[in-house]
Specification:
Radius of gyration: 16 Å
Strand order of the largest sheet: 1-2-3-6-7
Shape: globular
Bound molecules: zinc ion
Order of helices and strands: HEEEEEEEHEEH
Structural class: alpha+beta
Number of helices: 3
């Protein structure tokens, strides 16, 4: 069984690619695997990059019931509220760390399901925050890059230096 990809692994900084339909077997299996890994690690969301795949896919279940996971493929945020809220966020890929992140309270998401069918849905509060967190993963961003609510390029840069150092060590 594979582990989650964790900070400071630079793989988390890579941008994920659009998924083509119909899904191939490997990608179909990946979505099931992601749900399993999300529950196993007691997360409410998980992006493919966190299990080692550069696919624009994330799964989410904010109910914590453990049986209501939804799969989002090629998601795009097409609308959001004016209001936002700054709060602390953690990430399964950065255990013990957290970022103070400003997120929209409401977002409208366009995405595809496993069959490739398009959906558009509006999400609020916790789900909206979770989706914005997972969307960041698809772009290679992490919640720990934020400072006082805002995305910090400086913080990202200093962390990327830590990450290159980590890579140099694990390569040697
Ligand atoms: Zn995360």
């Amino acid at each position: 069984m594979s582990e989650l990809v964790k900070y400071p692994d630079v793989f988390l900084r890579t941008k994920s690619n659009e998924v083509k339909f119909p899904l191939d077997d490997r990608t179909a299996r990946l979505t099931k695997w992601m749900i399993k890994m999300m529950y196993q690690n007691h997360g409410i969301g998980l992006a493919a990059i966190q299990v080692g795949y550069q696919n624009r896919i994330f799964v989410m279940d904010c109910t914590r019931a453990g049986d209501n996971a939804k799969i989002f493929i090629n998601p795009i945020i097409v609308g959001h509220s004016d209001e936002s809220l700054t709060d602390f966020e953690g990430c399964l890929s950065a255990p013990g760390k957290r970022g103070e992140v400003k997120r929209y309270l409401r977002i409208t998401l366009k995405y595809q399901d496993e069959k490739g069918e398009e959906h558009q849905k509006t999400f609020y509060n916790m789900e909206a925050r979770c989706i914005q967190h997972e969307m960041d993963h698809l772009e290679g961003r992490l919640c720990i890059d934020y400072e006082n609510g805002e995305y910090s390029r400086e913080k990202n840069k200093s962390q990327t230096m830590v990450e290159s150092d980590f890579r140099a060590k694990s390569d040697s």
